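task queued by scheduler; priority normal; single chain, no ligands, no partner chains; default sampling; output format set to structure tokens
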Amino acid sequence: MTSPPEPFFTRVHEALGTLALRPVDPLTDCELLHAWVTHPKSAFYLLQNASLCEVEREFMSIAASPHHDAFLGLHNGEPAFLMERYDPVHVELPGLYPHEEGDVGMHFLCAPTDTPVHGFTHAVLTTVMAALFDDPSVRRVVVEPDIRNTAVHALNEAVGFRVDSTLTKPEKEALLSFCTREQFQAATTTAGKSLI
């Protein structure tokens, strides 16, 4: 059995411990990811009724794409969240908004749990954003969550996203939102103290 890929980004949260991201291994991670994405709490991930084979195919397709990546998030070494990074020119948003150089798209999902930890989802999203902006070529993060997903809209706003417009996509009505590097840094700095 091969060992999982090494994390490419790690961040220590003073209250919650270590959060890290590593590439998804579609073959070894698919059972875990299938349990996450088909859980009722993950309805907005749009894989609710997917079979194990369909989830494996989805992440194999992402792994093979030059414009899309998937990463497993670890909390103190244990799988706890999922992040997808994509080029919005080619994935999710081609032709749907005025693309700018340095744009990157993002999805994230926290593992469904019956014992949520206060502040965990915010810490995950902050980690995801910090990982994206760790790439100096990234100037702005683009998201297009379902307009009904009010919980994620509030989280997005808390890390610096600003709503641009509503988009009609084949699978949903989406709230197109942007967060620049400067907006993220301002949102995650309080009284001169960086939260990232």
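post-processing summary
- The chain is about 30% helix and 30% strand.
- The mean pLDDT is 92.
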